[in-house]
Amino acid sequence: MTTAHRPTWAPAIGGEEQGGMRIFKPSVALSAKNLPGHTKLKFRQDGQSSADEVRARDLRAELEEKERKHFAEKKGSTSAFEEERQRDLKLLEAAPPDGQTRQLVPKAIDADDEDPESSESSSDDDDDDDEEALLLAELERIKKERAEEAAKKAREEAEVAAKAKEEELRSGNPLLAIAGDVSFNIKRRWDDDVVFKNQARGEPKAQKRFINDTIRNDFHKRFLQRYIR
């Protein structure tokens, strides 16, 4: 529902001269838009993830529990995850050798990582590397052949275009034309030997004239000739 038909606050209160010399008391009412609002700050209540609740939560334990549930649903067992987790914790807790600094990067299994038990052996990795090298070599050979074919095709197209341009220049200029190849005779039109051609060329054309008389002008005479006589 629109309020375009209702007067705004400023013209509604009127002016001092309203009503002539009428004595009136100025209005002490305030507009709803001038009233104070939002005078209190809102804080998170209990159950709305307040600062104390977040501080008291063990986010790491919650994350590990979610990962445990994920692997349980995916493979039906959490033993692999637990073994990997215990191994990482032992590596982190182990003391570094004398004179060396600890540089350990824990490798916790992720939801997108594969199961360590299903990893391939080193020989399989070597075979994969060899196959990848062969595939890359084959790809480079195919790219090279395609580049050579494209260059050859471009050269052939350029030669054909140059020959066509040269032939066009030679046939277009009669001075460069070879004797016997170009004839200087005028070509006949297809209707040169037609019997009935330009029959009205020699007939006299009726000249138009202006006569300022509706009875003696040419139009009136043609009208009488066609429809009356």
UniProtKB/TrEMBL annotation:
One of its GO terms (cellular component) is catalytic step 2 spliceosome. GO terms for biological process: mRNA cis splicing, via spliceosome. Residues 64-91 have a biased composition (Basic and acidic residues). Residues 136-168 form a coiled coil. One of its GO terms (molecular function) is RNA binding. It comes from Astrephomene gubernaculifera. InterPro entries: Cwf_Cwc_15. It comes from the Eukaryota. It holds the Pfam family Cwf_Cwc_15. The keyword Electron transport does not apply. This is Cwf15/Cwc15 cell cycle control protein. Residues 111-133 have a biased composition (Acidic residues). Belongs to the CWC15 family. Keywords: Coiled coil, mRNA processing, mRNA splicing. Residues 35-54, 64-133 are annotated as: Disordered.
